[in-house]
Structure formats: structure tokens, C-alpha cells
Please model this.
Amino acid sequence: MKENKVSRKIQIMQTLAEMLEEKEPIKITTAELARRTNITEAAIYRHFPSKRKIYEEMVIFFESSIFPRIESMKQNHANDEIPGLIVTLILTFLETNKGFAKIINKQALTAAEAKIDDKISLIFEKLSVEIKQSFQSYERETKKKLALNSTNSSDLLMACMEGQIQAFIRSNFKKNPVSSWQEHWQLLRKIIFV
Model:
């Protein structure tokens, strides 16, 4: 029974993500979500007391998918590779789970989801800290200085990542954010790691 409950929750979140992928903006309602998942609105409310709670669970899923992988990267890659790998990880996740892009850039959120907005901001701050720390670790290990300090280098990569996400959404998910990021990272890497 518990497995069925979990799979229903995942089904609801997946359907919401698919709805967010659609080219034309649509009003996300529990009635439409119920129709598309082929379950009743009452069943949706048994799993999620509100639409805000669905978004919240999706943000939690995003966070729990990303940060353990970042920890693994830190164990298995050189510090000068980690900043680019973190951005690649985020863009790959969003390319695979397109609907999440509209949540992560807050496009799908309304004023009612203000707490989720704060949670997303915290995730981006944590990502920025991870990138900054990898730059600092690089400087400590190699005794070399970056062209920009670690804070500014991290800010630059975060701005590039957010720009890639926005361009991906604006292209109706046609522009491949990962391949263009790979080219950008090769240039940024030469500039930052002098």
C-alpha cells in the first residue's frame, strides 16, 4: 500500500512537470491535474493538501537529487573541474526534467508559493557556496590565484547557469543548455584559472 501511495505521489509530480513543459502557458488546477493523471481530485488532496505542497515536494526532490551527486563529485574530481561539473549537473537534470526548469527559475510559481520561492533561493545559495568552495580549495591546493576572486568567479558561473536555464525555457525547451554550457565552460575555465 505504501509503495502505491509513493508511486501515486510521483505520478502526480511527473504529470505536473509535464504540464509545465507545454508550449502554451496553462493554468495548473487540481481538476486538470486529476484529469491528466486519471485519478480523482480527492485522491490528489490525499497525497498533497494543496498545489503549493506539490511544488514544494518537487523542489525537495530536485534538491535531494542534486546535492548527494555534488558530494560524490567532490570526492572523485579535481577542484578545478567541480565548478563546471556542478553547472553541468543542474543543466542536465533540467534538460531531462524540463518542467522543473520553470519551477527552479520560479516562472511557475505564484504569490501563494512564496515559501517555495525562498527554498529555491536557498538552493541557489547552496550551489553558489559549493562552487565558491571548490575555487577556494583549488587556490589552497595549488597555491595559485584565480583571475577573479572565488566569490566573483562563483557569481559568474551562477549567472551563466541561470542564463542557460532562462534561454532553455524561452526556446520552449529546444535549445540544448548542456552543449552550449560545455563550450562556455571551456572559455571560462581558461579565463578563471590563469
